Amino acid sequence: MLPSYLTQNSSSPLTHLDLLAMKQRGEKIVCLTAYDASFSALIDAAGIDVILVGDSLGMVIQGHATTLPVKIDDMIYHTRCVTKMCKRALVIADLPFMTYATPESAAQNAAALIQTGGAQMVKLEGAKIETVQFLVAQGISVCGHLGLLPQFIHQLGGYKVQGKVAEAAAQLVADAVTIQNAGATLLILECVPADLARQITEQLTIPVIGIGAGNSCDGQVLVVYDMLGISTGKRPRFSKNFLSDTNSIESALKNYSTAVKQGEFPSVAHSF
Ligand code: KIV
């Protein structure tokens, strides 16, 4: 009899290979953040492909102004809550601020997100090539994150669209290619002009998930609280309240998924 990992069926958890196959056949990848078991179960049941346990939890769960105060223990706790109730979606967990300052600390913290949290992949911000290579060499799946980097907010001087001038755009393209070559199997592009995101998506063989990056990316991600209109602050221009047109969270999640799969979201109004 074949071992179970060779006989997985369609209800098995998605892997980065499934996401790659989706890119190759032109099927959009739908992603949302989640931080707890209940949202995880609802999002998973709605058929969303990827759940990101984002360090955005520093803002939407903990009430901080930035993601910087989030600790690795917070991420492990919330990742564990999410993975307990997730059957199909691939779960990515963020490595929070200063937990990947060296390749060794990155590996130790990524291991905790995987071993205790149950994540399948970890995400880190910026072109940390040596760190990506080191994690991949230990068997850790890595998602890169380029464009607006919330952990670099004090250096960036605000939540601004990145890659608007030619030099910055060229650097982003080069960083994306280098991250892919270092072994990352997914890339998130945040707040970059739609045309630049299209160029990067076409150039990379790995899937590119956008947030505020137009609709030519291979998939889209939003913070779940934003897309349900729960946020207390100003909703970012690239987000949309999917609950305002319906009367249940379940149908809002399904409508978001359908809108992404059909290429209707994000529209030009949600892009830069
Ligand atoms: O932390 C997060 O939620 C994220 C997304 C905004 C991409 O990194």
**CATH homologous superfamily descriptor:** Phosphoenolpyruvate-binding domains
Q: Please indicate the count of domains.
A: 1
Shape label: globular
Order of helices and strands: HEHEHHEHEHEHHEHEEHH
Q: Regarding CATH, which class?
A: Alpha Beta
Which fold does the CATH topology refer to?
Answer: TIM Barrel
Mean pLDDT: 95
N- and C-termini, Cα separation = 53 Å
The portion of residues forming beta strands comes to 5-15%
List the helices and strands and how they pair.
Elements: H1 16-25, E1 29-33, H2 37-45, E2 50-53, H3 57-60, H4 72-84, E3 90-94, H5 103-115, E4 121-125, H6 129-137, E5 141-147, H7 153-156, H8 166-182, E6 186-190, H9 194-203, E7 208-211, E8 219-222, H10 224-227, H11 249-261
Parallel strand pairs: 1-2, 1-8, 2-3, 3-4, 4-5, 5-6, 6-7, 7-8
Helix pairs in contact: 2-4, 5-6, 8-9
The structure holds 3-methyl-2-oxobutanoic acid.
Can you walk me through this structure?
- The radius of gyration is 17 Å and the shape is globular.
- α2 (37-45) crosses α4, α5 crosses α6 and α8 (166-182) runs parallel beside α9.
- The protein has a single domain (4-270), classed as Alpha-Beta Barrel (TIM Barrel), CATH 3.20.20.60.
- β6 (186-190), α9 (194-203) and β7 (208-211) form a beta-alpha-beta unit.
- The protein is built from 11 helices and 8 strands.
- It has an 8-stranded parallel β-barrel, surrounded by 8 helices.
- It has helices at residues 16-25, 37-45, 57-60, 72-84, 103-115, 129-137, 153-156, 166-182, 194-203, 224-227, 249-261; strands at 29-33, 50-53, 90-94, 121-125, 141-147, 186-190, 208-211, 219-222.
- The protein has 272 residues and is an alpha/beta fold.
- The N and C termini lie far apart (53 Å).
- The longest helix has 17 residues, at 166-182.
- Residues 3-9 have low confidence and may be disordered.
- The chain is 39% helix and 14% strand.
- The structure holds 3-methyl-2-oxobutanoic acid.
